[in-house]
From TrEMBL:
Pfam families: Sacchrp_dh_C, Sacchrp_dh_NADP. Residues 4-119 form the Saccharopine dehydrogenase NADP binding domain. Residues 126-434 form the Saccharopine dehydrogenase-like C-terminal domain. One of its GO terms (molecular function) is saccharopine dehydrogenase activity. It comes from the Bacteria. This is Saccharopine dehydrogenase.
């Protein structure tokens, strides 16, 4: 009996596990779900006869080796920094590995050995990164097939909440994936290419350098540049392109309010706060303000020249940053405190629905004629468990694992799903599951 080992039973795992359990019943496979919380792992598996929930810690090498040795394929949904430990054991024990995370330099360095051992280490096969790559390459390959020359590619993706969910929430946002990653988003310098110019945006400027984006049928959003877009110029085979931007999508107003926290220094992960057990939400903000008279709210407005009735302050006030509620942590960094405070208002309620919005724009030429392709994907969750995020992160990985187990994937080494043999069957099945891109093309010159 073939065995698939899923590591992690968190927010993004539910749809992946459900999909694999259904396939396990059809193909006589065994699905093992491992997590630090054995209760969470067992809850995800339920009473399914082809499933098993176990305690798993990647830091326990003996335990990890035992379970990985039993598997034919390992899917890691662990935090990205732990993938390397999983990969090293998979190499040692000759097991395939699938993740939804970006390929790190350390992971990339395993390519040759993985090829020698006939192993697939498939990364960036979730939502962003993942479906964004696959849907982009589908269109890029179609343009290349008709001898088109790509001039510009912009791509933005966001995990938001559906319009009907929590209508009083001014951020239009809740945590639907790793909350720490949301708080730490944008750290470092964003790099992209715009009209032939290399652009670099440091963290302290990132949330002021936004782009307005209109998604057909769903309205206006704003996007900010995401990490290193330049590396995908070669990955996508676009060496002569003049604009290459990949970014994160948010509802209007989010970035202005988030920028206040960034400029205050509240998103720092570099030190632990003193006297945290005694702190309230308000006194936490107080620690970053100049001394003076007036309320914390007033002094924040003075320090950053904000309107007290403006949208930035309304969002921070709604989040409870000016309340006298105790934070309720014994120890933590500023970023951890921000995450903790926001989680009190940004946690999905049972019937809440999240929403994924993805938008691509391509400009290409054929001879002296210029064309634009806009493609968008919008997906809603069913509730707080079967979220759009869980579907779009989990299903591509699950489909890839199924294809691998059935012998339908022949690629080996460290790779991402940018070749037709991978993206075509995955996108085709996603389309049947209701996850599809809608394309609109027009001649602009």
């Amino acid at each position: 009996m073939k065995c698939i080992l899923v590591l992690g039973a968190g927010r993004s795992s539910s749809c992946l596990i459900d999909y694999l359990l259904k396939e396990a019943k059809l193909n006589d496979w065994h699905i093992v779900v491992g997590d630090l919380s054995v209760e969470a792992a067992r809850e995800k598996v339920g009473e399914h006869k082809n499933g098993e929930g176990i305690f798993f810690s990647i830091d326990d090498v003996a335990l990890s080796s035992t379970w990985i040795a039993k598997a034919d394929c390992v899917i890691s949904l662990l935090p990205a920094f732990l993938h390397l430990k999983v990969a090293m054991l998979c190499l040692e024990l000759n097991k395939h590995l699938l993740t939804a995370s970006y390929i790190s330099p350390e992971m990339k360095a395993m390519h040759e050995e993985a090829v020698k051992k006939n192993l697939l280490f498939l990364n960036e096969c979730g939502l962003d990164p993942g479906i964004d790559h696959m849907s982009a390459m589908l269109i890029i390959d179609k343009i290349h097939d008709k001898k088109g020359k790509l001039i510009s590619f912009e791509s933005y993706t966001g995990g938001l909440i559906a319009p009907e969910t929590d209508p009083e929430n001014p951020w239009r946002y809740k945590f639907t994936w790793n909350a720490r990653n949301v708080v730490m988003a944008g750290h470092g310098t964003a790099r992209f290419l715009e009209a032939g110019q290399f652009k670099y945006v440091p963290y302290q400027q990132l949330f002021t350098r936004t782009t307005s984006i209109e998604v057909p049928g769903f309205g206006a959003y704003e996007g900010y540049a995401n990490r290193d877009s330049l590396q995908y110029i070669d990955t996508y085979g676009l060496k002569d392109i003049r604009t290459m931007i990949r970014g994160t999508l948010r509802n209007k107003g989010y970035c202005d309010a988030w920028n206040v926290l960034v400029q205050l220094g509240c998103c720092d992960e570099g030190y632990v706060l003193e006297n945290l057990p005694a702190m309230t939400h308000q006194s936490f903000i107080e620690t970053y303000l100049r001394s003076g008279s007036g309320t914390v709210e007033d002094r924040l407005c003075q320090q950053f020249k904000l309107d007290k009735e403006g949208e930035e302050i309304k969002r921070l006030r709604w989040s409870g940053f000016f309340s006298d509620e105790k934070i309720g942590m014994m120890k933590g960094t500023p970023a951890q405190v921000v995450e903790h405070i926001l989680s009190k208002r940004w946690t999905l309620s049972p019937l809440d629905k999240d929403m994924i919005v993805m938008w691509h724009r391509f400009i290409y030429s054929i001879g002296d004629q210029l064309y634009e392709v806009q493609a968008s994907l919008v997906a809603k969750g069913d509730d707080s468990i079967s979220t759009a995020m869980a579907k779009t992160v989990g299903w591509p990985l699950a489909i890839a694992a199924k294809l691998l187990m059935l012998g339908k994937i022949t690629e080996r080494g460290v790779c991402m799903p940018i070749m037709p043999s991978l993206y075509e069957p995955i996108l085709e099945e996603l389309d049947g599951l209701g996850i599809r891109m809608h394309e609109d093309e027009r001649r602009i010159k």
